[in-house]
Design a protein that fits this description.
353 residues; 5 domains; Ribosomal Protein S8, Chain: A, domain 1; 15 helices; mainly alpha; three-stranded antiparallel β-sheet
C-alpha cells in the first residue's frame, strides 16, 4: 500500500513537471517547420576536383552564418546536404509575431507621415501662424530653425503686401512706392526659397530603421582607477547607448513628434523580443545574395607542397611583400581568424608574433 502511495506521488510530480514545462504551449513548445510553417532553401556549392568537400561545406556554412546572421539572433539553420549542397531552413513568423510586426510598421509609418511636410498643410499652418507648432519649429536644430525662418518670412511678406497696398491707395510718390515694391519682391523671393527648402525636408525611413537597430546598451563606465562604476543597486553604470544618442538627434529635429517616436521604439522592441527569424523568405534570399561570391584557397602543407618552394616563398614575402611572389601555383593571403590555424595555445602565440 505504501509503494502505491509513493508511486502515485511520483506520477503526480512528473505530470506537474510536464504541465509546467508545456504551459502555455504557444510559448513553451517550439513547433517544427512542418507544423509552424517555414521555408527550406537548397544551394549547390561549386568545388574544384579532388577538394576536401566536407571541409569546404563546413567553411561555407561558417562564412554564410557570419554574413547572414552575425549576431546569432535569427533562427536560421544551415546544414550540409550530400557532398556539394547546403540546406538553409528558416521558420516563418507565427501570428503573434506578425501582429507585433504590423504594429511596428503602423507606428513607424505614422511617424514618417507626421514628419513629412505637405504643401497644403504647410501653407495653412503659415497662414494661421502655427507652422512652428505643426512642423517642429525650434532653434535647437537646423530643420527647426528653417521652419521658424519660414514663418518669419511669411509674416514679413504679408506685412509688405499690406504696406504696398496702403502706399498705392495713399498715392505716395513713385520713388517711395518703388522702394516698398522692391522690398516686397525681395521678401517674396526669400519666402519662396525657404518654402521650397522646407518642402524638400523629408525623413528617410531607412534612417529611422538604422537608428532602431543600433545597440541599446551603453558602454560600461570606469573610474580613474580603471574599475567599473556601480550604481546603488550594484548594477554597472553605463553611458548613453548608440541608439539613445541617435534617437536624441531625431528628437531634437522633430521635438513635436517625440511621443510618436517613443511609440515606434516601444513597438520595435516588442517586435524584436518575439522575433526569431526573418519575416519573409525573400529577405533571406536577399541576404544570401548579398553574401557575394565566396572564394576558398587550399593552404600549402609542409612536406606536401608539390611544385612550390616554401623557403623561396617566405624569402620573397619578406623582401617584396605578399603581392610580388613569382610562383604560379601559390601566393600569400591574409588570415582573418588565426584560431582556425592553430591547434594549441603555443601555435596561436607563434602566429600572433
Amino acid at each position: 500500500m505504501q509503494n502505491i502511495f509513493w508511486k502515485t506521488v511520483l506520477i503526480i510530480i512528473l505530470i506537474g513537471g510536464c504541465l509546467w514545462a508545456t504551459i502555455p504551449p504557444d510559448q513553451r513548445i517550439r513547433l517544427g517547420r512542418d507544423l509552424s510553417g517555414g521555408v527550406s532553401l537548397i544551394y549547390s556549392v561549386r568545388m574544384p576536383e579532388n577538394a576536401d568537400r566536407g571541409q569546404i561545406l563546413s567553411q561555407t556554412i561558417r562564412v554564410l552564418n557570419d554574413r547572414v546572421n552575425p549576431q546569432g539572433v535569427l533562427d536560421i539553420a544551415m546544414t550540409p546536404l550530400g557532398a556539394d549542397r547546403i540546406e538553409i531552413v528558416m521558420p516563418l513568423p507565427n501570428e503573434e509575431v506578425k501582429a507585433l510586426a504590423q504594429s511596428y510598421e503602423t507606428s513607424l509609418k505614422a511617424f514618417i507621415d507626421e514628419a513629412e511636410i505637405d504643401r497644403s498643410q504647410l501653407e495653412a499652418s503659415l497662414e494661421s501662424n502655427e507652422a512652428g507648432d505643426r512642423f517642429g519649429g525650434s532653434a535647437s536644430s537646423e530643420r527647426g530653425q528653417l521652419i521658424l525662418d519660414l514663418q518669419d518670412a511669411y509674416a514679413n511678406q504679408r506685412q509688405l503686401q499690406v504696406e504696398a497696398t496702403a502706399a498705392q491707395t495713399a498715392g505716395v510718390d513713385a520713388a517711395e512706392l518703388a522702394s516698398i515694391q522692391q522690398r516686397l519682391a525681395d521678401a517674396e523671393i526669400q519666402y519662396e526659397e525657404l518654402f521650397e527648402r522646407a518642402l524638400a525636408l523629408s525623413l528617410d525611413r531607412a534612417r529611422v530603421v538604422r537608428a532602431l537597430e543600433l545597440s541599446s546598451v551603453g558602454e560600461a563606465l570606469r573610474g580613474d582607477d580603471g574599475n567599473l562604476l556601480l550604481n546603488a543597486d550594484g548594477s554597472v553604470q553605463r553611458a548613453l547607448s548608440p541608439r539613445d544618442v541617435t534617437m536624441g538627434v531625431l528628437v531634437s529635429e522633430y521635438p513635436h513628434l517625440k511621443d510618436v517616436l517613443d511609440q515606434v521604439v516601444v513597438a520595435y522592441d516588442a517586435y524584436q523580443a518575439k522575433r526569431s527569424g526573418l519575416d519573409d523568405p525573400e529577405d533571406l534570399i536577399r541576404l544570401l545574395r548579398g553574401a557575394g561570391v565566396l572564394e576558398f584557397h587550399i593552404a600549402v602543407t609542409s612536406g606536401k607542397a608539390e611544385g612550390v618552394n616554401i623557403q623561396d616563398m617566405r624569402a620573397q614575402l619578406v623582401e617584396m611583400g605578399p603581392e610580388n611572389t613569382d610562383s604560379l601555383l601559390a601566393r600569400w593571403y591574409a588570415i582573418h581568424d588565426l584560431e582556425q590555424w592553430a591547434s594549441s595555445p603555443e601555435q596561436l602565440q607563434a602566429l600572433e608574433a
